[in-house]
Amino acid sequence: MMVEYQTLPRRILDIAREKVRNGEFTERGMAKHLGVSQPHMHNVLSGVRPLTPELLDTMLRGFGMSLLDLFSPEELRQHLLARDRRRPG
Fold first, then answer.
1. 3 has a pLDDT exceeding 80
2. Whole-prediction pTM value?
3. Is 55 in contact with 44 (CB distance < 8 Å)?
4. Domain 7-86, what fold?
């Protein structure tokens, strides 16, 4: 099971959209929390503007997450098992 780079921005955006949907943040509140403008946050969440690597990192920090949190436990487990199988030994 291989996760490609392009999957990661989609995942953090899905998390951000869910935080807005469930009432944890408004778009304005999220923008303020992350230190970006509300119009920019809206445009990124709605897909009008791309998510930059810098904003992805800002979102991870602001949500108290690590890049590893964007992977499911099963994806991490599968990766570690595959890595161990590739090691000579």
1. no
2. 0.87
3. yes
4. 434 Repressor (Amino-terminal Domain) (1.10.260)
